[in-house]
Amino acid sequence: MTSITLTARVDTHPNLRPLSIMRDLPAVADLIELCFSGTMDIEGKRYVQEMRRAGRDNSFIKWANRATETTSLPLTGYIWEENGDIIGNASLVPFRRNKQRIYLIANVAVHPSHRRKGIARALTERALQHAHEKKVTNIWLHVRADNPEAVELYTKLGFTERAQRTSWQAVTDRHAPGLETDFAITNRHPLFWQTQLKWLSRLYPDQLAWHRDLDFNSLQPGLWNWLYLLFVDMNVRQWAAVRKGQLHATLSWIPNRRSESLFASAGERSDPEALTALLTQARRELYHLYPNIGLEFPVSEFDNAIRAAGFKSQRTLIWMQATS
Fold this sequence. Notes:
2 domains, twelve-stranded mixed beta sheet, 12 strands, disordered N terminus
């Protein structure tokens, strides 16, 4: 198969055009599902369903046409169309962090029967060009770690790996087998907060905070924070694993719409068994709230500890940032 030769403006190719919210969303949803259904998590499936529903909602479409650059939804992007069929897509999702504009290139998908023709490259290059036209220089994408061809493509396009993070999921179970351990599992004590925050800042770095838009200050102790959580009806739960008076790990459950609602922290010298004990405790205590719970965590020496608690790896993503 031959590759596509791109000119200075890649959207001059007759098959490449901007996404039309008015008519393309259902077909793009079908393409994304076709390409990623084998590895799609609960949140991904919900995302595809919402895209189809949005494509049929006239009021949403009218609003979306005015909000493409101001809301963190995939309302902007480019598609590759042949003979009336959408066979390629790249979405652009805008974010803001500390008044800085950020773009995430997402949903880069090409129909299986049209791959290895340079379509993914053309779509990604056009998305990059769009960001530059908007004078946005902080551009990111993520790619599955088990897709080396895509990693190589993005590297050639000037992206550099910044992190590798795994999404984990487990079934809640009040009878989950316990771990024979000398760790004491307690509620998070206020005295642990500064250590917990230090560990969380390392494991959930500010460099990627724009994507999750999560403020860990909601976990800090104190009357005023407790009153705030009570006012917004947020039932945060926190546990700590302690051995001989020394903190080894903490675990927080923050209810939200995302499947990854657990946030773990541990030090570089912490015993991984502490994290196993905490995650097992969460599976037991949260069984009456959700059938499944999730955790996003950097690829690390704690991977086996997470598995030992009954969690299964959903996917590992390489986060890449444009550097040229």
